Amino acid sequence: MPQFVSILILSAMLTGAGCTFRSFEVFDLRCENLSNPSGIENAAPHLSWKIKSVENGTRQQAYQILAASDLRLLSEEKADLWNTGKVTSPSSVMTAYAGKPLSSCSRVYWKVRVWNEKGDASRWSDEAFFGIGLSESDWKGDFIGLSRETGNPQSPLLRTQFDVSDKKSALFLYVASLGYHEAYINGAKVSDDVLSPAVSQLDKRVLFCTYDVSPYVRKGKNDLVIWLGQGWYRPGLPGVTHDGPLAKVQLEEWRDGSRNTIVVSDASWKGRESGYSSIGTWRPHQFGGEYVDGASVPEDLTTASLDRLEWHPAIKVEVPERAVSAQMTEPNRIRETIDAVDVRAMSDSIWVADMGKTLTGRVEIGFPTLQAGQKIDMSYADRLNDKGDLVNQGQRDVYVASGKGKEIFRNKFNSHGFRFVKISGLAEPPAKEAVKAYPVHTDYRTASSFQCSDNDMNAIHDMIQYTFRCLTFGGYMVDCPQHERLGYGGDGNASTETAQTMFDLSPLYANWMQAWADCIREDGGMPHTAPNPYKAGGGPYWCGFIITASWRTYVNYGDARLIEKYYPEMQQWLGYAAKYSVDGLLKRWPDTDYRNWYLGDWACPKGIDQRAEASVDLVNNCFIVECYRTMEKIARSLGKTEDAEKYAVQKAQLQQLIQKQFFNAEENKYGTATQIDLVYPMLTGVTPDSLIGKVADRLYLETEKTYDGHIACGLVGIPVLTEWAVKNRAKDLIYSGLKKRTYPGYLYMIDNGAVTTWEHWDGTRSRIHNCYNGIGSWFYQAVGGIIPDEAHPGYREVFISPQIPEGIDWAKTTKETPYGTLIVDWRSEANVLHIDITVPVGCKAKAVLPEHAAGYTLDGIACERKADIVEIESGKHVLSYPTNKTDIASNL
Predict the structure, then answer these.
(1) Which among 333, 167, 143 has a CA at the least distance from the CA of 253?
(2) What is the pLDDT of the chain when averaged over all its residues?
(3) Which pLDDT belongs to residue 9?
(4) Of 865, 892, 540, 344, nearest to 879 (Cα)?
(5) Who contacts 545 (Cβ-Cβ below 8 Å, separation ≥6)?
(6) Is 24 helix (H, G, I), strand (E, B) or coil?
(7) Burial class (CB in 10 A: 0-12, 13-18, 19+), 50
(8) 852-891 pLDDT per residue, tens
(9) Where are the beta strands (DSSP E) in 538-620?
(10) Given this model, what pLDDT does residue 887 score?
(11) CA quadruple 816, 822, 823, 824: dihedral positive or negative?
(12) Helix/strand/coil (H, E, C) string of 666-703?
């Protein structure tokens, strides 16, 4: 049948069925960048959506949002909370709710439709919802826990019962816990999240989670159990006032638009120990694990089983005042199961299980028949020593057998960073299929992909991307999961551009920046980690993370909330840094009870003196220039013109002072002439234009002569070198460094068995770490050629300008933007570069032509060059122009 006849018949069928064809549709509705959140903090939230279209050039001309208190009311005629009508606007990201005021515990259903540039309307989107959490004044209960006099309080079960007259109401459970929690109703866990809530600065803030428990509640009597674990709530840490974790709980019933509190946590609850307790102190190298007494763990949490147990009164615990806030990031979840690849004997009764790759997560081990009281010891490490034994990384679990039937150990309130498990105390090995691992990470979305013709580059990219999966859990990013588990600002600063390119991390950063703001001291001093349970090492690059990360979140996601909310803290910290400046240049500040060390670069290759005063002072003053420059941009974005001008002046003054103090004109070098010392002044505008060529030449000379072509930086230097290389199209400098298989290098790691990046180039200490992941943005911004335009945040406008090293013939790159998926797929053939570009609706791509290209072809049409940039509308396009192997000056 001819194609046009088929189309006519299909069209007639759709019309006859009452259907109208639409070439575009609305999808992926988000509230505060979350999908259907049950309990948010903001009663006037921000809504976002995406549009997909089969036609090129589609633009949103207008939108209409409906919001209702009941799904049955979600129509133009009945929407009782908000009907915007047709609003002429291209905005589809972070649109502020402006309907009727919303109350605590309410649920809002919403949908949206849009009009395109032709005036055609889309269908209504699928329905979405969001819930408003409890306000602080709504909490009625107490923090409760278990008394040590009645049992081990480290991981208690807390129980109450409640009655429901019928199943017509909606019920929402709110749990704020100091320590981790899991909630069960009638024996069923009410969510699939683990290790909740996300982290916070516990002496300042406790987070609560919201659960829609309507499906779990039955008519009549119901059992509610909260199972607690210590997490960071350990004696001796800030804000800890009890030997065990605590919870504040509230159950709310919604019926016919009215709310009724039916459960609060108080002394009427019952408690008992669970059979789980803690090993370790949760200090560095002492994260331990869990001690599980199999005979004491309940068979299940059904009413019948609970009634057979002995219970004691729960206790109310007075907790010093702190904010109680909704968790505004995705929870931790388990999305994968990893089976052991090998179980081998180490000696009599000692076995080593190999999971095949490093990971962060939980363990499950099914044991052969055990005798009652038999103790099984499990230790964990990311590598083996020269003797084939596990290195000691302070990670350990213990299981004491009940002697009753099949016995399985499972982690509940701890996790490990590991590849190997040593199992001691078994006369025979566990079956290989009985040893499993469950990776745990915050349940954000992957937002990118990269593949090119060079498999070495693919391997490095994939190692970095997987490493982030192992480092981002609990609503923040850790340095490593096994040794310290701290949210270091330096590690975050070094990797934010890469992490936010690879993943959708706006909610995670919202949670993490809240912890940073909660950690600031009255004098403006900032710690090196947030949360800040105890002092840890770092320097200004660590403390200033609240400035740089908030700005990058705005640029990458179009989310201005962080720069608006934390602007005062940013100013306060810069004022603190100014107090420790001598003759205008920042010098070492004192250690405190919450912060120590004073670093410039860190974790550099052997032979580099990363503690040299000249380098430390140079790096830190260049970072302050970066902070001033960022604050100038933030102030302008917020309409604070006077502040912007002030920061511009401070930036210029400091640039001149650095040039005068640290530049050696005879040798065309700064500081100690390491890669970071030469690059950072050029990147931050310290180096005058007249000297850029000479300093860059010295950089290339040192790279080849001193470092044999290797990338020879540490944690701070890697992202500094990467950003400079991208902006100056120094593609071969990075590519040739990445291709090195000898120490120090990424391929050196991979050739020595790495699946995740290491803490040090030689693999000492941690082998799941965040030191060197800042290079990851190079794959997207240089090879992929995708660079967000800071003047149009959130990828509303984006530059496309692939940089093609000698040795790469093609690359396929995708980036999920707030507007949809951006794709750049290029190949070099016969001295012509062909780029397939897919631009999402709402975004505009600006392809940068190289200087040598006199013309180009766009979608099969030959065009004469009239400007340096070709603007490309939404849809699928093909751009071609001649290649040139010479580095081309950037037009960005």
Answers:
(1) 167
(2) 95
(3) 36
(4) 865
(5) 489, 490, 492, 493, 516, 530
(6) strand
(7) buried
(8) 999 999 999 999 999 999 999 999 999 999 987 543 333 3
(9) 581-582, 585-586
(10) 37
(11) negative
(12) CCCEECCCCHHHHHHHHHCCCCCHHHHHHHHHHHHHHH
Please state the three-class secondary structure of 702-765 as a single string: HHHHCCCCCCCCCCCHHHHHHHHHHHCCCHHHHHHHHCCCCCCCHHHHHHCCCCCCCCCCCCCC
Share of the chain above pLDDT 90, in %: 94
Terminal-to-terminal C-alpha distance of the chain: 51
Enclosing H/E stretch for 434: none
Tokens standing for 214? Answer: 């309507």
Contact 814, 449 (CB under 8 A): yes
Find out whether 826 and 839 touch, Cβ atoms under 8 Å.
no
User: Sign of torsion, CA 746 751 752 755?
Assistant: positive
Which residue is listed with tokens 């962080």? 562
Q: Which residues contact 348 (CB under 8 A, 6 or more apart)?
A: none
Q: What is the pLDDT of residue 883?
A: 87
Residue that is written with structure tokens 């899991």 in the block:
182
Side-chain-side CA neighbours of residue 267 (13 Å):
5
Q: How far apart are CA 833 and CA 142, in angstroms?
A: 66
pLDDT tens, 523-540? 999 999 999 999 999 999
The whole-angstrom separation of Cα 839 and Cα 618 is: 41
Pairing of strands 669-670, 663-664: antiparallel
Query: Residue 470 carries which side chain, given as an amino acid letter?
Result: C
Rounded to two decimals, what is the model's pTM?
Answer: 0.95
Residue 409 backbone phi and psi in degrees, to 5: -95, 135
Distance from C-alpha of 653 to C-alpha of 750, rounded to nearest angstrom: 44
φ/ψ (deg, to 5) at 777: -65, -25
**Which amino acid does the sequence have at 283?**
R
**Burial class, 304, CB count within 10 angstroms (exposed 0-12 / middle 13-18 / buried 19+):** exposed
Dig out the tokens for 412 from the structure: 């509940």
How far is Cα 554 from Cα 792, in angstroms, rounded to an integer? 10
Which two three-digit tokens encode residue 48?
């976002």
Distance, CA of 784 to CA of 792 (rounded, Å): 20
Mean pLDDT of 643-664: 98
Q: What is the pLDDT of residues 181-240, one digit of tens each?
A: 999 999 999 999 999 999 999 999 999 999 999 999 999 999 999 999 999 999 999 999
Backbone angles phi, psi at 575, to 5 degrees: -65, -40
pLDDT at 20: 54
- Locus of tokens 């090998």: 342
**What's at 206, amino acid-wise?**
V
Report the alpha-carbon distance of residue 90 to residue 219 in Å, rounded. 48
At residue 781's C-alpha, the angle toward residues 776 and 784, to 5°, is 100
CB within 8 Å of 732: residues ≥ 6 apart: 805, 806, 887
Segment 749-796, tens digit of pLDDT:
999 999 999 999 999 999 999 999 999 999 999 999 999 999 999 999
Cα–Cα distance, 472 to 498 (Å, whole number): 13
Alpha-carbon torsion, ordered 667, 670, 674, 676, to 10 deg: -140
C-alpha to C-alpha distance for 203 and 205, rounded to whole angstroms: 6
The count of residues in the chain is 892
User: What is the pLDDT confidence band of residue 3, given thresholds at 50, 70 and 90?
Assistant: very low
The owner of tokens 């509705």 is: 29
Residue the block writes with tokens 């199972």: 227
- Kindly tell me the sign of the dihedral angle through the C-alpha atoms of 148, 149, 151, 156: negative
Look at 17-26, 304-313, 738-747 and tell me which has the smallest mean pLDDT. 17-26
SS3 341: coil
Secondary structure letter of residue 781 according to DSSP? I
**Six-digit token string for 77:** 């005629």
**How large is the C-alpha radius of gyration of the chain?**
29
Q: Which amino acid is at 782?
A: A
Question: Looking at residue 257, what is its pLDDT?
Answer: 76
